[in-house]
Amino acid sequence: MQDLLIIGGSDAGISAALRARELSPETNVTIVLRDSYPNFSICGIPFYLSGEVADWKNLAHRTREEIEKSGIKLMSNTVAESIDPLAKEVNVRPAQGDPVTIGYDRLFLGIGAVSRQPNIEGLKTPGVFVLRWMDEARALHEFLEKNQPKSAVLIGGGYINMEMADALTLRGIRVTVIEHNPSILKTLDVELGEILKTYMEAKGVQVLCGFRAQRIQPQQEGGILVHVDNGNSLGADFAIVAVGAFPNTGIATAAGARCGPSGALKVNRRMETTLADVYAGGDCVETHHTILGKDVYLPLGSTSHKQGRVAGENVVGGNAEFVGSLGTQVVKVFETVAARAGFNDSDAVQYGYDPLSVDMKTWDHKVYYPEAKRLHIRLTGDRSNGKLLGAQFLGHVSTEAAKRVDTIAVALHAQMSIANLNDIDLSYTPPLGSPWDPIHQAAQNWLKAGRI
Ligand SMILES: Cc1cc2nc3c(=O)[nH]c(=O)nc-3n(C[C@H](O)[C@H](O)[C@H](O)COP(=O)(O)OP(=O)(O)OC[C@H]3O[C@@H](n4cnc5c(N)ncnc54)[C@H](O)[C@@H]3O)c2cc1C
Fold first, then answer.
1. Could you read off the pLDDT of 285-315 as tens digits, one per residue?
2. Minimal-distance CA residue to ligand 1 atom 46
3. The domain containing residue 273 runs over which residues?
């Protein structure tokens, strides 16, 4: 293997490049990316827009110089237009200059996802922003600095807009979130989403669930008007549309690569696509789900890094396998953390399990020690055999919900039962926990409710 060509310079592409060079320093690695932000942490965009990260340049996981020092050639502002898998060539078009054909021995696709455009009239109205790429983030930042807006409508109640509601409130902007589902943050069951909604309302965010934005129009006096399907309209200085993303597969399917049922590229555990010598990972592919033993679409930055690394090893002759995802995810909204690993109750039902989900609220550490806070845990297990299926957490940042959900992820990875969860030797000191950690307490509660 001489030449590794990578399309995509974000989490998956860079991880693949670094791993390949680490294992095989003699391999020529070239990355083609259509923008000029190689290896930027787009997960950090909300924190740049809030002002907590002062300079957009600080969002780079690594600088261009650091990447190039690893022996990787970067071709920024260059769009890959087509792949010829038989000739093993990719046609690329740089922003300046003539199109070029690049040959490869192995190709890795880390081409990511594309923001979903909802069926709302007037999405191109000035003052309506979509948020995924660095140039979109910088355009919104410029708008915020220049116009000092006072109000915003956020269309979509997923994790990006939860973070943006927090970020904009921090900037003194009045925020309304509109979500067509019955509750926000669908990674959580509806009941927990309701609790988060109430919390956000207490922070001054108006949250409208069960309504659809239908039309956006400019207002004569400036700003925009968002028409809602209940007949009301919401006036604001600007809007952000963040309603999810779909896999970017066009260039690969045009070359004959197959997709799975979700519409993302089909790959095996070695991250090989259905085309010879073409690998893929990250938001453009289906992901093996550890509990289900099936492939699903679960686009996350954490997963993209891992899949890129697996592919990077295999392209240079290795034999790595992507173990799988558990859907472990976490989001901080103001001072609250919402986290989940495995299935929530409604997902478990959807996948054919007979789940029992048991809620409990308990202190994060011994209550006699200052600053003890309540942590809400919903533990989901299989009613028929007591197997752990997942957990959701909602609590103040100091309750360590983010790290406690990781304990659940490890337990799921090890295919534990809920009884096993109660046996784990977890740490204890009064300022940080209890002899029976909240996780043990949740397990005991579940076993009592399930009589297992
Ligand atoms: C605001 C925001 C917050 C997020 N927060 C989190 C979080 O907290 N935790 C988490 O796990 N995930 C988070 N995510 C998701 C995470 O960012 C993505 O899962 C991850 O970036 C996917 O990485 P990727 O490399 O697969 O693709 P992408 O990051 O989508 O990158 C795709 C790359 O391909 C390039 N490209 C695409 N097509 C072409 C072409 N034809 N030619 C040349 N180049 C091309 C693009 O320029 C880009 O470099 C967040 C996403 C957003 C938008």
1. 999 999 999 999 999 999 999 999 999 999 9
2. 8
3. 3-35+77-113+246-314
